[in-house]
Every structure is written in structure tokens, then in C-alpha cells.
UniProtKB/TrEMBL annotation:
Keywords: Cell membrane, Membrane, Transmembrane, Transmembrane helix. Residues 23-184 form the MacB-like periplasmic core domain. It comes from Nocardiopsis flavescens. Residues 290-409 form the ABC3 transporter permease C-terminal domain. The lineage of its organism: Bacteria, Bacillati, Actinomycetota, Actinomycetes, Streptosporangiales. It comes from the Bacteria. This is Putative ABC transport system permease protein. The chain crosses the membrane at residues 279-307, 328-357, 377-400. It is a multi-pass membrane protein. It is found in: Cell membrane. Coiled coil: none annotated. The keyword Membrane applies.
Length: 416
């Protein structure tokens, strides 16, 4: 049986080489169909990776909540943050706006800079890609000067990143330890992250944090703070987009930090990659349906050409039978010839898609900076889907002509 299989495959390749025009004609519909499938899978894969990266950079990794109060003062920030952890927070970071602060580099005052007071743990909650330097570490909390990370857009407009000051009613020297990378994920605005530390507490809280004789910090208050909180994706609170479950847990101990009411506390699911990926999935299903219709048209074309070919090659096939070829060998030869034609079409479609994707990536790079780990490229799944569907179409399209070839009379075929 193995010998017959090998002989059938060799006959299939010989037949394909001998009928180049027919092979090219059969390829046309499959090239379009397979190319469409590869393009859809590639676009869906890129869209999902880009949506995930965008969500992680702007809102947080999976199951990140934004927790904020409004028109309310938290009387004990430390107690509030302890309860954020008790409510299910794995990583908690302050993410509140520093009001009325400006940035100056040398003698150049940069207007409209959004300064966010954060903790080093924000790097565990959100994707922080650095162009220069690094993100905050716990050691930066001991710095005698406030510590900043600025985005590339802001750094480009600074006269000297080693001579930076921020201030509200007075200027204060700060130390820039990193520049976050500008990319398609960056809105292009001036953004600076100020590490919450003893050196920056007065700017964040409006007052210095006092300590008692035993070194314990006195309770400090903050009006309308905002936090980023990452919870376990398996936590029931992660399935509540409006944060009612998490808010309920938090409010159960609100007497410890100000007696905040339900109307003054807001918690909601901040990351949105799952929703975007779901939308992309629905769109991909529709596009794959269109590609499948095109591929079916290609299948019918290969089937039609195969039937015509078998009719024209009756004498040739009868000669093979007369020379000792088994029925199984002829069956494999006809089917494999169809598979070979379809695989050639699949390879041509893959090559065409690769050229288009490479050109699209070059054009996109001229206008936007994609994140380094989100390249525009054909994923392995697209290659497998494309070539697998091409082989499947060839297999299906070759069965009927092969069966017809087996039913043909050897004697009648030799008389033609």
C-alpha cells in the first residue's frame, strides 16, 4: 500500500508539471480564498494583540479596577489603602492628579502637563515601556528629591532632562529617572508620573506628613483620590464591570477612613481588552464567512477542472492501469494532483499576503510607532489555517474526479 501511495504521489507531481496552464487556471480562485483567510486571521491576531497592549498601557492589565471618590475627603489614606487590599486588591497604586502643578526645564516652562502621583506598583498594574532609563523602584522612595518619569513627547520639549523642576506655589528640583516610550498607545499629550514618597508628599497632599515620637506616621487626608487596583481575574468582582461588588466590600469599613457613602465612591473595570477582542472576534467570524464563500468558489473551480482533466486523460490513465498501476495508485494520483494544485495556490496566497503585510507595516511605521512587542506580521496560525484550508480544498475537490477515473473502462480508454 505504501508503494502504491508513493507511486500515486509521483504521478500527481508529474501530471501537475505536464499541465502548467491547467494548474494556473485552477489556482486562481483558491489564491483569492486562501489569501482572504490569511488576511482575516492576520488582522484578527494583530487587532487582539494591539487591543491588549493598548488596554494594558492605558488602563491596566486584566482585571484592573479604577477606584475614585468625588466631593469627599479621605481622612486616613493609609487605612483606605489597607481596605483596598482587604477588598481583593493584589496591586494597589495611587493614580491621582496633582493639581495646579507646572513643569519647568531650564528656563522653559512647559504648559498643560498632566502630572499623576503614583506608586512604584503601577508598573505591575500597567504596561510601562521605557525608551530611556527605568520605571520607579522602591529605592526611589528614599530619594531626597521628588522622582519623575516623563513620556517621550514631554522629554522632547525639555531643554535638559537633568534640570527639571515642578511646582505649584514654588519651584522644586526633581530627578527624572526614565522616559516612557511614545507609541501608537500614547495620545501625544504631555504626561509625567510623580512617585509618591516623603520628598513629594507635600505636593501631593498639600502638607507634610507628620510623624510621632515613635516614628509612626500621623493619618493624612486626601480629597477625591483616584487609585488603580488590580484584582484576581477569577475574583467575582472582576465579572462586575460597574464595580458594585468591590465597592460593597470597601464601603463595609468606610468608618475607618471618612464614612464615605455609596454615592461618593466609584469603582469600575478599567481594562477593556476583553470587550475589544470580543468585537474583533465577531467581525472576524463574518469576514471568515466571506472568505469561506470565496474558497468554496475556488473548490468548485478545481473540481470542474479536475473532472475535465480526467475526461481528457482517460487514455493516459488507462495506460497506467494496463502497465500494472493499481486502482489505489490512480486514486491517489488524481487526488494528490488536486492537492498539489491547491497547495501551490496556498503558497502563492501566503507569499502575496506576506508582501502586502510587509508593505503595510512599512507604511504604518512611517506614521505611527507600534509597540515593539506588537509587530504587524503573519502569525503561525494564519499560515496553518491558509495552507491547511488549501490542502483540504484540494482533497475534497479531488475525490469526485478520482472516483470517476476508477469507474472508467480500461479497454475503452485504450481505444481512444
Amino acid at each position: 500500500m505504501l508503494r502504491s501511495l508513493v507511486a500515486g504521489i509521483l504521478l500527481a507531481f508529474a501530471g501537475s508539471r505536464a499541465n502548467i496552464a491547467r494548474t494556473i487556471l485552477s489556482c486562481a480562485g483558491i489564491v483569492v480564498g486562501v489569501g482572504s483567510l490569511i488576511a482575516v486571521v492576520t488582522a484578527g491576531d494583530f487587532g487582539q494583540r494591539f487591543a491588549t497592549a493598548y488596554s494594558e498601557a492605558n488602563a491596566g492589565r486584566a482585571a484592573t479596577l479604577s477606584v475614585a471618590t468625588w466631593d469627599t475627603e479621605i481622612t486616613d489614606v493609609a487605612a483606605f489603602e489597607e481596605d483596598l487590599v482587604r477588598a481583593g486588591g493584589l496591586d494597589v497604586s495611587l493614580y491621582t492628579m496633582v493639581q495646579d502643578a507646572s513643569v519647568r526645564s531650564g528656563d522653559h516652562v512647559i504648559p498643560d502637563v498632566e502630572i499623576r502621583a503614583v506608586d512604584a506598583t503601577l508598573g505591575d498594574i500597567r504596561r510601562m515601556t521605557m525608551a530611556q532609563g527605568r520605571w520607579f523602584t522602591e529605592a526611589d522612595a528614599e530619594s531626597l528629591a521628588p522622582v519623575l518619569v516623563v513620556n517621550q513627547t514631554l522629554a522632547a520639549d525639555m531643554e535638559d532632562v537633568t534640570r527639571v523642576q515642578i511646582g505649584t506655589d514654588r519651584w522644586m528640583d526633581v530627578r527624572v529617572v526614565g522616559v516612557s516610550q511614545s507609541s501608537a498607545l500614547d495620545g501625544g499629550w504631555y504626561t509625567a508620573f510623580l512617585l509618591r514618597a516623603p520628598a513629594s508628599e507635600e505636593m501631593i497632599y498639600g502638607e507634610s506628613v507628620e510623624t510621632s515620637a515613635d516614628g509612626a506616621a500621623a493619618p493624612v487626608s486626601l480629597r477625591d483620590p483616584e487609585y488603580s487596583v488590580r484584582i484576581d481575574p477569577g475574583d467575582p468582582a472582576a465579572d462586575d464591570p460597574w464595580g458594585e461588588v468591590f465597592s460593597g466590600r470597601l464601603l463595609s469599613a468606610s468608618d475607618r477612613w471618612g464614612g464615605v457613602g455609596q454615592d461618593s465612591l466609584m469603582a469600575y473595570r478599567a481594562d477593556y481588552a476583553e470587550e475589544v477582542n470580543q468585537m474583533i472576534g465577531y467581525l472576524s467570524v463574518g469576514l471568515i464567512g466571506i472568505a469561506a464563500i470565496t474558497l468554496t468558489t475556488g473548490l468548485l473551480g478545481v473540481l470542474n477542472v479536475g473532472l475535465v482533466t480526467v475526461r481528457e486523460r482517460r487514455r493516459e490513465l488507462a495506460t497506467y492501469r494496463a502497465l500494472g498501476a493499481t486502482r489505489f495508485t490512480l486514486f491517489v494520483a488524481v487526488v494528490m494532483e488536486s492537492v498539489v494544485v491547491s497547495l501551490v495556490a496556498g503558497v502563492l496566497a501566503l507569499l502575496g499576503c506576506w508582501i502586502l503585510v510587509a508593505a503595510g507595516g512599512a507604511v504604518a511605521a512611517a506614521f505611527i510607532d507600534l509597540p515593539p512587542d506588537v509587530p504587524l506580521a503573519i502569525p503561525p496560525t494564519a499560515v496553518l489555517v491558509g495552507l491547511g484550508s488549501a490542502a483540504g480544498v484540494g482533497l475534497l475537490a479531488g475525490v469526485i474526479p478520482a472516483l470517476r477515473a476508477l469507474r472508467s473502462s480500461v479497454v475503452a480508454g485504450l481505444r481512444e
